[in-house]
Design brief:
binds fe (ii) ion; single chain; mainly alpha; 73% helix; 273 residues
């Protein structure tokens, strides 16, 4: 069912001389979040309890996300043989809990849940595109290309189901925009910062949210180019029901790029301090 399999990655082409040490912590953190896909599928199965088609799609989606985590984890272990992927993930799982007992979406509606999923897939598709292009190591490039292709398909999957629910629930544009913006800003919560901590901090070191969030964001934003932001903005527009290409989307992409460059400078200063 998967579009690619971890065993098909050309692991024997791994070239340690081409590994950029700055990317290793990013890959370790990403492996944590991706590997946690199974828990999110449990939550989605509860929220969409009477929709067998979507539940099946969510289970399949989770299998792909878990494979993303395993492929990134395997690469990080090659790049840093002292790293223990399973132990790092066990720490993440113990400390980061999703609302698995939810009876309904924490976004207020199923349409809202699916818009939030579209935002996540927008973020991941642009991130792995950016990470893969920033990397010089051929195996990491291949993994990121494969993952990014999955994330673009995941966006389409959640988008198609969202359109179906939107016809029923009729959520207004302002609410859709608010849900989208809310999910984008949430990316700076514990999900990623704690993943950075579990993936990179030595055993026993206390978790400091602000420091880990800054370290993660500084590394991540450094990989982005304007084209990634531009494509991502088109996807955000599409998900909330606005024209993905046009003046407004163009202007928003340019504004987001300026904001990203400003944050990049600030984060670099904070991390250096
Ligand atoms: Fe993923
Ligand atoms: Fe995904």
């Amino acid at each position: 069912m998967k579009h690619w399999h971890i065993d098909e990655v050309a692991w024997d082409r791994f070239d340690p001389s081409k590994v950029d040490p700055a990317l290793i912590p990013l890959v370790k953190a990403a492996a944590m979040v991706e590997r946690n896909g199974t828990d999110y599928a449990i939550y989605l199965n509860r929220v969409f309890h009477d929709d067998p088609d979507f539940r099946q799609a969510a289970d399949h989606w989770a299998e792909e996300e878990v494979q993303h985590g395993d492929a990134l984890g395997k690469w990080a272990t090659l790049a840093d043989p002292s790293w223990d992927y399973q132990a790092a993930f066990a720490r993440y799982r113990a400390g980061y809990k999703l609302p698995l007992d939810a009876e309904a979406s924490i976004r207020g509606s199923r349409t809202g849940e699916l818009i939030a999923r579209c935002m996540v897939e927008t973020g991941t598709s642009s991130y792995y595109s950016a990470l893969g292009e920033a990397a010089a190591e051929p195996v990491l490039k291949q993994i990121c290309r494969n993952i990014a292709a999955d994330e673009f398909r995941h966006f389409k999957l959640f988008y198609d189901h969202m359109r179906r629910y939107l016809a029923r629930e009729n959520i207004g544009m302002v609410r859709r925009l608010r849900i989208a913006a809310g999910r984008i800003t949430e990316s700076e919560d514990d999900e990623l910062a704690f993943a950075w901590h579990c993936g990179n901090a030595p055993e026993g070191k206390a978790y400091e949210h602000a420091r880990c969030a800054a370290a993660y964001m500084a590394g991540a934003v450094a990989c982005y180019r304007f084209r990634h932001v531009e494509r991502g903005m088109g996807m955000i527009f599409k998900a909330v029901g606005l024209p993905p290409r046009g003046k407004l989307s163009d202007l928003s992409a340019k504004a987001a790029w300026r904001l990203l460059k400003w944050r990049r400078r600030r984060l670099a200063r904070r991390v250096a301090a």
